[in-house]
Amino acid sequence: MINVLLFEDNKNDVAQLKASLPKNEFEIVGISSNLKDGNQQIKQLDFDIAIIDIFMGDKPEGIEFANEINNSTKPKPFIFLTSSIEQHIFKNAKNTQPFNYLIKPFNKFELLFSIELAIEKYAEQQGAFAEKKTVFCNDCFFVKKNNSLIKITFDQIFYVTVDSQYCKMITESGNFILQISLTQILKDLPPEKFIKTHRNYVVNLNMVDSIYPNDNLLILKNKDKVLLSRRLQSDFFTKYRIFK
């Protein structure tokens, strides 16, 4: 699920968003209607994108809220969703570098597409790569499935293996076919958590349950068996403290 933070004071709009977002693989993790609560949520909540109304009552607090996101320790992409069409308000909002500026009443599909595009563009700006149907970020990746983006954190990955001309990623949320080489995937996964155990396998070290060096085999927490080649055993064991 992609985590969404809302800055919105209109109850009808909140109800509409609550009705449409969860049905399309988006989870609303926080809702605020004032700067004090909003700033707390920026610091405390794990969100992937924010949807921001500009006016809270008669005050354009949404612009300040957007600046707070930009100045936070972990900036995130955001979209303005507002009924404001004044040119000077738009210019002030534009200066915060939103990924879109949508006018109410909103079209559900336009909003969903805007969220997806915002996440992909943000990932590219952060130095992640977007190749065909997969986007890697700092601590997670997004994979397209049907008409939605599925968020997978690195901690959910069991292993990645070569599957014909593609790669298959085995995760707690299911299995995904990626149109990316195993070499490229290994470059974008954190090296302290992932290691190549065989020419066809990259493994999450935290998911290893049992090691059988003589059999060149690993048993993972999901009970899958993964090959551990003799050539790569020394590199693999440097990641563990082995007590004899």
TrEMBL record:
The keyword Phosphoprotein applies. Residues 3-119 form the Response regulatory domain. The modification 4-aspartylphosphate is found at residue 53. Transmembrane segments: none annotated. Keywords: Phosphoprotein. Residues 141-231 form the HTH LytTR-type domain. Pfam families: LytTR (PF04397), Response_reg (PF00072). It comes from the Bacteria. This is Two component transcriptional regulator, LytTR family. It comes from Lutibacter flavus.
